[in-house]
User: Fold these one by one.
Assistant:
Number 1:
Amino acid sequence: MKISDMRRDYESSGLRRSDLHADPLVQFETWFEEAHAAGVADVNALSLASVGADGQPGLRTVLLKDVSDGGFVFYTNYGSSKGLSLQARPQATMLFHWLELNRQVIVEGQVVKVSEAESAAYFSSRPRGSQLSAWASQQSAGIASREALEQQLAEVSARFGDGPIPLPPFWGGFRLMPRRIEFWQGRPNRLHDRLAYQLTDGHWQISRLQP
Ligand SMILES: Cc1cc2nc3c(=O)[nH]c(=O)nc-3n(C[C@H](O)[C@H](O)[C@H](O)COP(=O)(O)O)c2cc1C
């Protein structure tokens, strides 16, 4: 199969300005629920872009865990590559691609750390194995071997025993506060629909973009 021959047409009834809710977060939740109902796997998985100290864009998958207080929340290690980038340069972009619905949503804005209480509440809801792995991993740092990583996990497991596992001080959430959100709906013949919300003087303005 030649990669250049790979293509499929995107069937959909399209996206009109009149379909959109005035609040892009409500619109996001509508599309999110539709993607979930359509059986999209890992519907809350998104690509998260950050900016490195040298200007190099950093990109990785994370899981959306909440849409609240006007923003999009995910959790990570604050000392990871992304964690350090986001604290030094708090601009970020999120991309959701819901292939089965021929839809893409791009969210741009500034990130802020969520409160420790909010991170602790989420951390306590995680399975115990995930809590231990958060403690055991110095995310993004190198390590000599898989065995060394498992040794770190064994050490934290022994330390906590059967007791409760507190929120690691180096772990928690970020909330991306959107300034721009674009909804993309694939259409036949690549004549797609793009409608973007832009926050201007505290109000969301909607405009249509060429595909
Ligand atoms: C489906 C999927 C979900 C993931 N969810 C998260 C997440 O919620 N938080 C996180 O820190 N890393 C998550 N990861 C791992 C990240 O993609 C990445 O490898 C890790 O966070 C280190 O990134 P960094 O070195 O750029 O900081 C996920 C990976 C995949 C494939």
Number 2:
Amino acid sequence: MKAIANVDSNWGIGCNGNLLVRIPEDMRFFKATTIGKIVVMGRETFESLPGGQPLKERTNIVLTRNEDFNPNGAIKCSSIFDLNNNLSQYNLNDVFVIGGESVYKQLLPFCSEAYITKVESKFDADKFFVNLDLNEAWEVVDESEVKTHNDINFRFVKYINKKI
Ligand SMILES: NC(=O)c1ccc[n+]([C@@H]2O[C@H](COP(=O)([O-])OP(=O)(O)OC[C@H]3O[C@@H](n4cnc5c(N)ncnc54)[C@H](OP(=O)(O)O)[C@@H]3O)[C@@H](O)[C@H]2O)c1
């Protein structure tokens, strides 16, 4: 399984239920990387998707403990145990953890790779990704040149989990 996230310079990922920043090239990267794959997310992230709709051309899996929540067009899992059972039918290399904070935290130890778009600005954030630069299990294996959108610098960084 792999994680994919956009983080600010403080590893912030969201505020008030929204993303911190939307960068078209990053959105295209996210789509190209996850298309045709399985995406795993928390209920909050699912509800924040454009139009409240599942991501197209991907198998959407939503974690929720709410028995009454029925995400249209998505598979519902009630626990990590339930998720693992569901994922057994897929190649784990095709499974992407797409957030938010609570789901990244729980599933990161099981991720072999992380695709992190690092934005070189600091925003007000109330949700964070684990700082992989301070985590000895994780190592940078690939890094793009610095790119710019509307005066915001960012780069694509790929990490691997040395413990997997
Ligand atoms: N920058 C990025 O790349 C990125 C990506 C994704 C999201 N985000 C941001 O992250 C924020 C949302 O993160 P969040 O942590 O608040 O919410 P979240 O992780 O998206 O969803 C949390 C919900 O998931 C369900 N859940 C979590 N763990 C579970 C488990 N083990 N078993 C069953 N259900 C489980 C629960 O749903 P119930 O309450 O229904 O039980 C929980 O309330 C937003 O601001 C969003 O924009 C950023």
